[in-house]
Amino acid sequence: MKFLRLLLLFVFVQVSAQQGGMWIPSMLKGMNENEMKTLGMKITAEQIYSINKSNLKDAVPQFDGGCTAEVISDKGLILTNHHCGFDAIQNHSSVDHDYLTNGFWAYKMEDELPNKGMVVTFIIRIEDVTPKVLEGVSALPNEADKQKKIQENISTLNKTLPKEAWQENSIRTFYDGNQYILFVTETYKDIRLVGAPPSSIGKFGSDTDNWVWPRHTGDFSMFRIYADKNNRPAEYSTENVPYKPKYSLPISIKGVKENDFTMVMGYPGRTQEYLPSAAVDQIVNTLNPAKIAIRDAALKVQDGFMRKDNAIKIQYASKYAGVANYWKKWMGETKGLKKSNAVAMKQKFEKNFQEKVIKAGKQAEYGNLLADFDKNYTNIKDYALARDIFTEIALRNTEILTLGYKLYQLEQLYNNKGEQAFNDRRNNLINGLGDFYKDFNPNVDQKVFEQLMAFYSSNYPKQFLPAAYENLNAVSLANTVFTQSQLVSYDKIKVLLSGDSKTVLENINKDKGFEVIKTMADNYLKNVAPKYDEINLKNIATQRTYMKAILELSPKSARIFPDANSTLRVTYGKVKGYKPNDGVTYEPFTYLDGVIEKYVPGDYEFDVPKKLIDLYNAKDYGRYGASNGKMPLAFIATNHTTGGNSGSPAMDANGNLIGLNFDRVWEGTMSDIYYSPDICRNIMVDIRYVLFIVDKYAGAENLIKEMKIISPKMKK
Ligand code: ARG
Ligand code: ASP
Question: Which residue pairs, CB below 8 angstroms and at least 24 apart, start in 654-657?
Answer without folding.
Answer: 654/42, 654/43, 654/252, 654/716, 655/43, 655/47, 655/48, 655/56, 655/249, 655/250, 656/249, 656/250, 656/251, 656/252, 656/710, 657/70, 657/72, 657/249, 657/250, 657/251, 657/252, 657/687
